[in-house]
Write a structure and sequence with these properties.
By secondary structure, the chain is mostly beta strands. Helix content is 6%, strand content 47%. The strands form three sheets. Strands 1, 2, 3, 6, 7, 8, 9 and 10 form an eight-stranded antiparallel beta sheet that branches. Strand 7 and strand 8 form a beta hairpin. The radius of gyration is 23 Å and the shape is flat.
Length: 174
């Protein structure tokens, strides 16, 4: 992984940024509560949602022309809505917010800083998505291991029954 892209448009190279170390991509982690119950052998487990992930980016920026490049990069990182890495083509992560450390000048022409991005737990695909078109009765299954929120678009007139996980939904259109 040598570079990243913010908001599907701005690359780290355009911002003058260089990664100075490896970026660890964390896996999604489930929130789990273990509840102790008196008189019971073992604990009860309650599954919650998914915990946010933290991405730590060790960065360097060229400061030969002053700190303007650092300021520009800090603004872009704090306003980022998505981030994708060159080592993960076709996927992106949604950014909730970012924290930028102060600029450290350890070399004459390079400044170093860290960006910590708080992200949603999952990586989303923007390539390789399959669109299914059904003109008659049929079944579409989720090949993943986790529930998904598909976008279902219906076209036509008349009455229709859409069944999702055994629950029928009656839809009427003029």
């Amino acid at each position: 992984m040598r570079s990243f892209t913010l908001n599907h448009t701005t690359t780290s190279t355009e911002l003058g940024l260089r990664l100075t170390g490896p970026v660890q991509l964390p896996a999604a982690r489930r929130v789990v509560d273990d509840i102790e119950v008196a008189g019971r052998a073992g604990t009860l487990t309650r599954f919650g949602g998914w915990a946010d992930t933290l991405l730590a980016l060790p960065l360097a920026v060229d400061t030969t022309l002053g700190v303007e490049a650092y300021r520009k990069a800090a603004i872009a990182l704090t306003k980022a809505l998505t981030i994708s890495f060159s080592g993960e083509p076709g996927g992106f992560t949604k950014v909730k917010h970012a924290e930028i450390s102060p600029l450290r000048r350890e070399l004459a022409s390079w400044g170093f800083f860290d960006a910590t991005l708080v992200c949603e737990p999952f990586t989303y695909l923007d390539l390789g998505l399959d669109q299914h078109t059904l003109t008659t009765s049929g079944t579409i299954t989720n090949p993943g291991l986790i529930e998904s929120d598909p976008v279902i678009t219906l076209f036509g007139t008349g009455n229709l029954t859409l069944t999702i996980n055994g629950t029928p939904y009656r839809i009427g259109a003029p």
